[in-house]
Amino acid sequence: MHLAFRFSFRWFFASRRRNCFLVLVSALALLLSSLPGQAQNAPAERPKVTRILFLLDASGSMMAPWEGQPRWEVAKRLLAKLADSLNTYPNLELGLRVYGHQSPNAEQNCEDSRLEVPFAPKNAAAIKAKLKVLKAQGNTPITYSLGQSAQDFPVDKTSRNVLLLITDGVESCKGDPCAVSIALQRKRVFLKPFVIGIGAQKEFGKALECLGQYYNAAEVKTFKTVLNDVIAQTLAKTTVAVNLTDEAGRGVESNVNMTFINNITGQPEYNYVHYRDAQGKADVLDIDALQSYDLVINTVPAVRQSNLVLKAGKANVLSYRTPQGTLALQSPNVSPNPYGTVQAVVRTPAGATAVALPFGARQKLLAGSYEVEMLTLPRTVQ
């Protein structure tokens, strides 16, 4: 059987081996859908409570000098100042867990970790008072402390739980803090943690990068800057607009379902239909930048972008070229039709199935070349 379909003013003929033919779907020559979807008006949500747990290293090494002062004193002073600055923020609660402060290093206490200040609003005074009486002396049970921190956050599925680890050393109790961090993120105990390595060289961070977003603060000035930056990322509003363009790079494509998938948990975090307003501007999505995402644009075939790079506290614009056209499969114009209802399989050049549909149907596809196989019985091979 020989079949010929005309698209984009070109002819593509059937393969001699089977009843397949290639189709070029072009967004410039085929019918494009131009009707915008309806705006999605959702009722206003109550503001989420953000809880920040400071996980502070009080191991013996924190008594090492750092620009004329012990690291411990610098960390306590700047952390106290930070807590004070956050005391008036609405919908914000702070907590303080410390490790390495209850037993001397000689005892090698790998369970030396305690929640010193539970979560509460406007509790800067309690945090500052506790920091004044603590002393650094023990070892570095980071893994155990992370595991214990899961019990520090109240059971509240609507809150944003953030953990900030401040340390000058790596795990000293043979645990695997990275595995625990990933496990707790998957359980949604907390978002991707922040880790600040103080007084450390760049190589130090290689062992802690897998914990979360790592910052190297080799200098006191850098430590202060990083602390402020982390809080800004946590509290500032972050948005993202996805601009879908045609072959010429014009932002005209729309009405496409899109999914932001948390690439730690594997679960969808945001799922919505792309929309453009009367001026052609893409809709803007409020997004939590303290998570890592893969974006799936659910065209046919789907487009996936792994590990999105988003700037916290900024208006992010992501552009993707997704020109689309409509493929219409029409049965032979004969009566009576000797073929009946014929099914077809549309495949990408790589051989992956894009969609299966009957002749007479219409399907929106990304612009490109496709193989269409007619599922006749018996198969016709020439």
Write the layout of secondary structure elements.
Layout: E1 4-7, E2 10-13, E3 20-25, E4 50-57, E5 65-66, E6 69-70, H1 71-85, E7 92-99, E8 113-121, H2 124-133, H3 142-149, E9 160-167, H4 177-186, E10 194-198, E11 213-217, H5 220-235, E12 239-245, E13 257-262, E14 268-273, E15 284-286, E16 293-297, E17 303-305, E18 315-321, E19 324-328, E20 343-347, E21 353-358, E22 362-366, E23 368-374
Parallel strand pairs: 4-7, 4-9, 9-10, 10-11, 12-18
Antiparallel strand pairs: 1-2, 3-23, 5-6, 7-8, 12-15, 13-14, 13-16, 16-17, 19-22, 20-21, 20-23
CATH architecture of the largest domain: 3-Layer(aba) Sandwich
Biggest sheet, strands in spatial order?
A: 8-7-4-9-10-11
CATH classification, class level of the largest domain: Alpha Beta
Q: Find the CATH superfamily of the largest domain.
A: von Willebrand factor, type A domain
What do we call the CATH topology of the largest domain? Rossmann fold
Note the overall shape.
elongated
What is the makeup of the main sheet?
Answer: 6 strands, mixed
The number of distinct helices, counting runs of at least 4 residues, comes to 5
Helix content class: 10-25%
Number of domains: 3
* Rg from alpha-carbon coordinates: 29 Å
Give the SSE order as H and E letters. EEEEEEHEEHHEHEEHEEEEEEEEEEEE
Q: What's the number of extended β-strand segments?
A: 23
| Structural class by secondary-structure content | alpha+beta
Mean pLDDT over all positions? 86
Quaternary form: single chain
Catalogue the unreliable spans.
1-39
Strand content: 25-35%
N/C terminus separation? 7 Å
